[in-house]
Write a structure and sequence with these properties.
single chain; two-stranded parallel ribbon; about 65% helix; mainly alpha; disordered N terminus; globular
Length: about 350
């Protein structure tokens, strides 16, 4: 965790962290509900109905229950970690619960404000899943007396308006990269159980399959509306691909001890996640980022270094600190722009939209 990040020792500090607005913090969203109501998935009715049956089956309804071993591991294993790792893990939990709860709120609001039966049903199921995820993570915060008041978070955190198509691009990627992150961690700790320093990681495999299915839902919506994947919208797809990858890289490199404790290198872990997400996103996006380009990797590392220096300038405060922050913000935008205009890969979309979580 960056040296500029304050320690997390009280519910008030945790709440402030969850409400913080920055380029790398999870956001709460609202959208155009009338436009959502007009969506039509009839061109992919067969795949859509199969997916709805999967949601109805609710194969994870019994999954998010803590067993006696969970409490034992918290006291016997996690209690042994260093104070620095504890802080990075708490930061990870706060980011995760805020992100999951963000999805819950958005999906619930769409469900409430549309009459389209397909979209209403989908949003109901996804809000159900995200509510479970957020509540399960929050329980781990409560183990340390640091649980978030999710009702207060809903009332007081700022909301960002996104057009539906931006919601589709961003949320699709968020769900798919969430799957890739969780399954990569789960597989690593499956191979090295001695590095599982908290029991929550044992839940990641079935949990991330929820994330995968949520992404499938948005893939079907976008493929049912092919104009979203053509023309100028391809440039928006490139933007969101880069924004999601860059955000993950910078955020992960502010808490390297978290990955080291699991036997992972933050950079290698991130590029493994990018590879999985890129392969998955070919189901719906006609372009993908070439994350193997040396210029791409150098650009992400530059964004990370800019963020470190920005945090230091912010902690310094005063006029000099503000001037440095402004200069670094400009440098960040320029670096992002250079990354955006790097060559991308183009490919045809498969006839069959849906995929299986096979990683």
């Amino acid at each position: 965790m960056s040296a500029a990040s304050p320690s997390l020792h009280s519910p008030e500090e945790v709440a402030r962290r969850a409400k913080t607005e920055s380029l790398i913090s999870p956001r709460f969203y609202t959208t155009d509900f009338d436009a959502m109501d007009r969506l039509d998935v009839s061109s992919l009715r067969g795949e859509w109905d199969v997916m709805m049956k999967e949601y109805q089956g609710d194969n994870n309804q019994d999954h998010f229950q803590r067993d006696a071993k969970f409490t034992e591991e918290v006291h016997e294993v996690f209690s042994q970690v260093s104070p620095e790792l504890r802080q990075e893990f708490l930061d990870f939990l706060i980011t995760s619960v805020t992100s999951e709860f963000s999805g819950c709120i958005l999906y619930k609001e769409i469900e409430k404000n549309v009459s389209n039966p397909d979209i209403k049903q989908l949003m109901h199921y996804m809000a159900r899943d995200e509510s479970r995820h957020a509540g399960f993570i929050n329980q781990s915060l409560k183990d340390f007396g640091l649980g978030l008041d999710l009702g207060d978070l809903k009332r007081t955190k700022a909301y960002t308006y996104f057009k539906p198509k931006y919601i589709f691009y961003a949320t699709y990627l968020s769900e798919k990269i969430g799957y890739a992150r969780y399954i990569t961690i789960f597989r690593q700790l499956e191979r090295h159980p001695d590095k599982r320093f908290h029991p929550i990681f044992r839940w990641f495999e079935r949990w991330c399959n929820d994330e995968f299915r949520h992404g499938e839902s948005f893939a079907l919506i976008m493929r049912a509306h092919p104009h979203l994947l053509r023309g100028i919208n391809v440039y928006w797809i490139r933007f969101f691909l880069l924004a999601v990858y860059a955000t993950m890289y910078v955020r992960d490199h502010t808490r390297p001890m978290l990955h080291n404790a699991m036997g992972l290198d933050s950079t290698n872990y991130d590029y493994q996640v990018f590879d999985i997400t890129t392969e998955i996103s070919k189901q719906v996006f006609p372009v993908s980022l070439d994350t193997d380009l040396p210029a791409f990797r150098a650009g992400l590392e530059r964004l990370h270094q800019i963020q470190v220096r920005f945090n230091e300038a912010k902690a310094r405060g005063g006029l000099v600190g503000k001037i440095k922050q402004a200069g670094l913000a400009v440098a960040g935008v320029a670096t992002f722009a250079k990354l955006y205009f790097l060559p991308v890969k183009h490919h045809e979309l498969p006839e069959q939209v849906r995929m299986a979580p096979a990683w």
